[in-house]
Amino acid sequence: MRVALVDPSLFTLPYDSALASGLQAVGHDVVLFGRRPGRDDNAADGVRLEQSFYRVAAAPAVTALPKPLRLGVKGLDHIVSMAAFRRRIARWRPDVIHFQWLALPLLDRCFLPQLRRIAPLVLTVHDSNPFNGNPAAFVQKLGINASLACFDRIIVHTEQGRARLAHQGIDQARVTVMPHGLLGAPGAQAKANDTMQGRLTFLLFGKLKPYKGADLLIEAFGRLPEELRHKACVRIVGKPYMDVGPLEALAKRLGIEAEVGIEPRFVDDNQVASLFGPQVVATFPYREIEASGVLSLAIAYGRPILASRLGGFAEQIEDNVHGAVVPPEDPAALSAAMARFVTDPAFTAGCARNVHRLAACVPGWDAIARRTTAVYDALGIARR
Hints:
single chain; 384 residues; alpha/beta; Rossmann fold; seven-stranded parallel β-sheet; six-stranded parallel β-sheet; 13 strands; globular
């Protein structure tokens, strides 16, 4: 079967690559269509990536423009890119076109019916609350509901996602819940015998965006008694998509700047494992989430989890077994959970062991590829 995976902006390149590799492993011919990867992108290992999008917008003369002009050029480039993509797809004639993201649904809506005449359309909705409710993504959310109607099948990662789409009036016969596989190197760094002795690190890793609650984490850590703060630290690491100045100011105002490390930088694939070493509690004080690639990393590396009771965190992480699951936007509850991790190393070590076991239960990408193939087969596609 010929499968066209589409992620114009490479929003979820690690997921795209893993899924493409899984589909290839079960016998499909897969091409990922997106933009040219930049220096701050993960590697697209073992995947055929066709750079069909944003060739003009990526030019140095355009990236140097002020943001409003740059985004305007990118919007026009998106129209040109989608038109070129449609022509390319018409020549290649895939059996299914599987979008991972709709970068600009209002514009995409104009092309989807034309693409659907070439091959059935499938969409993975990674965020049932588009862009996790980011007000700055207002333009990117326009037309999303009309666009969803163009797809033959929709894939979500959580029951929360299924319920939200049902609330939006999406026919549930078109919706499939698909597990999010592990990213990183499962088992390579997982420490089943990690005693969690010594100074703990509460790690918040990934793209730094407001919805991830770094400010809530700093506030919660500041609520800990001084003697507990000396036994732990906070580490916030990732490429910034927000101003981190207010985070630094908050830590300073609370008098904890020496114990809060903020590292606004892209982390290369080969450096990720070192972040999830011993004495690390993977921390997710998110305000909103559907499924999290970073959670899959934390599970793969066997780290105890501290997370908001949302989406995949609530559905996959069991409170008091794999860590602590707390109400979102509740610094007091977050702080209390941190205190337990610090003061009860036996509990923390037990959570690490349980997460290590959980990693073994997550379906592999070959299994996910077979489930995805079943979604394709339900469309009545004739195998080539």
